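Support reply, case 0932

Customer input (verbatim):
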Amino acid sequence: QVQLVESGGGLVQAGGSLRLSCVDSGRTFDYNTMAWFRQAPGKEREFVAHISWSGVTTAYADSVKGRFTISRNNAENSMYLQMNNLKPDDTAVYYCNTRPPTERLWGQGTQVTVSS
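Our regenerated output:
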């Protein structure tokens, strides 16, 4: 049963923006810190950003700090990642999950491709 569904990826030129969405069809969001992760071709999956249940606390990987903004809407069981000033190194499949991640919740992710 799919619980977390990511969307919003696409092809964009360097310097462009995208907004990713994660929708929870189960109760995963309830009181959990949620996060975005990404996996580039040939690389390990890595942490991108997380946000606490209240939305007060956020944290970012150094590589995206100042460019990406994580947010959530608990009433709509949704989480977002606003990505600005995208770089070719941001090319990856982006996933949402709990923080730390729950193995069974990995979804299909959404592909982000940044051209130079």
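We compared this against your earlier run and they match. Two observations from our side: The mean pLDDT is 95. The CA atoms of residues 9 and 60 lie 19 Å apart. Please reopen the case if you see a mismatch on your end.
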